[in-house]
Amino acid sequence: MHDLRDVKGQESAKHALEIAAAGGHNLLMIGPPGSGKSMLAARLPSILPPLSTEEMLEVSMVQSLAGELMGGKLATERPFRTPHHSASMAALVGGGSRPRPGEVSLAHLGVLFLDELPEFQPGVLDALRQPLETGEIVIARANHRIAYPSRIQLVAAMNPCKCGGGSPGLSCRTGPRCAADYQARISGPLLDRIDLQIEVPAVSAADLVLRAPAEGSVEVRERVARARKIQLERFAAPGSMSGRTNGACSGHVLARIAQISRLERGPTYRFRYYHQHLRRIDAGS
Ligand SMILES: Nc1ncnc2c1ncn2[C@@H]1O[C@H](COP(=O)(O)OP(=O)(O)OP(=O)(O)O)[C@@H](O)[C@H]1O
Ligand SMILES: [Mg+2]
Question: In this structure, what are the phi and psi dihedrals at residue 173, rounded to the nearest 5 degrees?
């Protein structure tokens, strides 16, 4: 399996990946070509906790409905789905003349990785809002409706602009609107559902000749598992009515566990402090 140790430098991006894994937060990585976004995303499964037995059953049921249960054996790996940006609506959210689950359901209890996010059809991206909000996707037909589970962690990556500007020695060739137009292809409501949005800067030659980092996926995965355990206990409390992770935490529970002081409530600080609080919670403090 891929290991986080392969990623040289990019300490903040790796930290963000760890927080996303610990809290089950949706994550968007924005950076120039070759900065390692796809490489980082591919290493997320190596730091996520293994599936519980109950989760294995849920994942297997969806795979079975889609005809993807290999040899009838129980699925033991957390799903990591990477649909191409040319994917149709039916392929992504499910449906078709004989309805079957789409990628968003095949990623249930795992990760849906959308690489080159703005290249997906806008309608397809909009259709993701409902499953991200409710954890299930409803396909309506003339005389019946089908609901498939889709509690996913969305991880997305994109270049800052369509021409791929921003990498070393390659500035935007198309002009100032290039980045703005490209980024505007992602709707505000979808962005609202992505807790962590980070820049992944280009790696320098000096970073690439560094020795492999001392810490790899095994060490990070242990911290993630500790943070998940704390969250399980927190959300198992009677009346919490939240999901199982900070990423799925309901507003009123969040207000109770991550109280923001008056000083921190200013518009400039709100975003930063909110994430610092989440980080502290994820770290188990
Ligand atoms: N921090 C890094 N440490 C080691 N290798 C790296 C790093 N960043 C990038 N690379 C190398 O560069 C290759 C390209 O990286 P990757 O495909 O992840 O970039 P990307 O940000 O997804 O680019 P694009 O926007 O073109 O999809 C990787 O396969 C890897 O070999
Ligand atoms: Mg890539």
Answer: -95, -15
The alpha carbon of 29 and the centre of ligand 1 are apart by a number of angstroms equal to 13
Q: How many C-beta neighbours within 10 Å does residue 73 have? A: 9
- Confidence (pLDDT) at 210: 77
Ligand 1 within 6 A of CB of 31: yes
pLDDT of residue 198: 92
Domains (range + CATH), the chain? 4-208 (3.40.50.300), 217-282 (no CATH)
pTM above 0.70, yes or no: yes
The whole-angstrom separation of Cα 246 and Cα 19 is 10
Angle, helices 11-23/217-236, rounded to nearest 10 degrees: 30
Q: Is the CB of 35 under 6 A from ligand 1?
A: yes
Q: Confirm or reject: Cβ of 167 under 6 Å from ligand 1.
A: no
Indicate which atom in ligand 1 lies nearest the CA of residue 164. Answer: 25
